[in-house]
Amino acid sequence: MKISAVITSRNDNYGGQLNERATYCFNSAIDTFDEVIYIDWNSPTHSLLYDIKHNINFKGNFKHIVISPEIASILTNNDPQAQKCCEVLGRNIGLRRATEDYLVSTNIDIIHPRREDLEKLIQQMKKMKENYMKN
Fold it and tell me: pLDDT category, 129, cuts 50, 70, 90?
């Protein structure tokens, strides 16, 4: 079983301590998932990853996509009312590029479970689905 994770965020320190939270998030995602796709959406100066890349334990399963403010504006039809971090569009871009069997869409605030625990959960969900389909 192969699992992709899509993480969308913006370098604006929303919620405080963004660098610390993102470091934990990325390192746990890299350990848990076969593929991690980080979409940096509409960061005002530069991608969050550039600030913390020396703290990340990259393993070759990490993809980084930057959607600049200029492109974000085009993708939101130059609508001044569009959210600064339009997660829906960012997630869709990441999900379209995911290559694995299962897809997880998550946030920068999440510390991901251990791989073994995630696989157990997926197996439980499969059994629940099978039981539901029988009834």
Answer: confident
**Residue 21 vs residues 31, 44, 48, 50, 112: alpha-carbon distances, Å:** 16, 19, 11, 14, 12
Q: How far, CA to CA in Å, does 99 sit from each of 90, 104, 116?
A: 16, 12, 21
Q: What is the pTM of this model?
A: 0.88
Q: Which of 94, 110, 87, 106 is nearest to 23 (CA)?
A: 110
Give the SS3 label for residue 54: helix
Number of separate domains in the chain: 1
Residue type, 69: P
Domain that holds residue 129: 3-134
Q: Decide: 74 and 43 in contact? Cβ < 8 Å.
A: no
First to last CA, the chain: 27
